[in-house]
Amino acid sequence: MSQLAICAIFKNEAPYLLEWIAYHRVVGFDHFYLYDNDSTDGGSALIRASHLGAHVTLTQWPPRPGQLSAYRHFIDHHAHSCDWAAFIDIDEFLLPLTERSVRPMLDRMPHASAVLVHWRVFGPSGWMERPEGLVIDNYTMRGEDGFSANRHVKSIVRCVDLLDVTKNPHEFRLRGQPCDTMGRPVPNIGIQATACHEALVINHYQTRSRQDWLEKIHRGSAMIEQDEPKYPPALLDHYAEISTVADHQIQSFADAVRAALTSPDPAPDPALLSPDEAIGWAPQGDAAWNHPDGLALVYRDTGRFGRPWLGALRRSAAGRIDPTFLIDVEGHIRVFATDRAAIAACEAALALLSSAEPNR
After folding, report:
1. For a Cys-Cys bond, which of 9, 35, 291, 347 suits 61, CB 3.0-4.6 Å?
2. Torsion of the alpha carbons at 242, 248, 251 and 253, rounded to the nearest 10
3. Alpha-carbon torsion 340, 342, 345, 347, what sign?
4. All structural domains of the chain with their residue ranges
5. Which residues of 122-142 are buried (b: 16+ CB within 10 A; e: fewer)?
């Protein structure tokens, strides 16, 4: 199973870090290499205190500007551990448009050294102060696809073909050809002649609320040292004016994101798997399938359609043992430290179910 990673640098983004990590876990990313550019709001501590921190490699990164040097550090020290790496920012959310994961699209790109993904730029959606709740729920108004800023791309790079970043964080030196999200060869440049909004896009919440916009201006850029703000305050009004398209598509992931924020990787929902993903069925109702997170062993009462799945045991393809989960007959999740304990609990649950329903 390929390892999908994200590399990003952040500064004083604490209110948004956990949602951003949880969301990208939901859409198929395995690990996050995050560079803390001298934050003062406790973002790194927040990640370490969360169960999501198990999927994050945090590096304190004081250089100013720090984005390009952080990317080079990732290339030199971590890229060899990954198959694909997305280089995006904390206000950018990779959104698969036709599937529930980024992975299937990448699997269809064996010829691509990188996939260049276009922005859809969102405005403040009427918010003056930072609202409670998820970014993906609160910001729903964006510019039309023809808006000029949407020609910008960010890169998901095949790491074996990754040589270096250029002077532009939107562009990388590659061994081979980059493609758009439909697999068509495109120039290796950060602003394309036309935008492709098919299969996969980036929801770019560039402003968020007016409060967030002013804080963004104050904290400056990770790309340049500057005496004047990178963004003029009045630009927010422009984004508010051009954001005339209501877009709720990303909200289909909101419940899964909330679940990922509150519990450590709940077991995958078998209903989301297509029939051809099943490897086989044992007579008692055991099943194994290839899931994006690794091999899962699942125990199910097959006597009744719709009965809950009794357990999910996961092993990461990377060789590490992930937390092991059991879903009991009432749908509650239990966590086990070892495979052996989870298997014993699954077998006990099956035995109990068999004795309670002898005619199943």
Report:
1. 35
2. -100
3. negative
4. 4-262, 270-356
5. bbbbebeeebeebbbbbbbbb
Task: Write down the pTM of the prediction.
Answer: 0.73
pLDDT of 256 higher than 50? yes
Task: For residue 35, give both structure tokens.
Answer: 């560079």
Ramachandran angles phi, psi of 73, nearest 5°: -60, -45
> Which CATH topology does 4-262 take?
Spore Coat Polysaccharide Biosynthesis Protein SpsA; Chain A (3.90.550)
- Among 29, 318, 36, 20, residue whose Cα is nearest residue 156: 29
Say how far apart CA 62 and CA 216 lie, in whole Å: 18
- pLDDT one-digit tens code per residue, 292-309: 444 444 444 333 334 444
- Taking phi first (over 0 means left), then psi (-120 to 50 degrees means alpha), and beta for anything else, what does residue 21 get? alpha
> Mind listing the pLDDT tens digit for each residue in 11-56?
999 999 999 999 999 999 999 999 999 999 999 999 999 999 999 9
Phi, psi angle pair for 89, to nearest 5°: -105, 170
Map tokens 């009045």 to a residue. Answer: 234
**Residue length, the chain?**
360
User: pLDDT tens-digit profile of 259-296?
Assistant: 999 887 544 443 343 333 322 222 233 333 334 444 44
Q: Which contiguous run of DSSP H or E holds residue 72?
A: helix 67-77
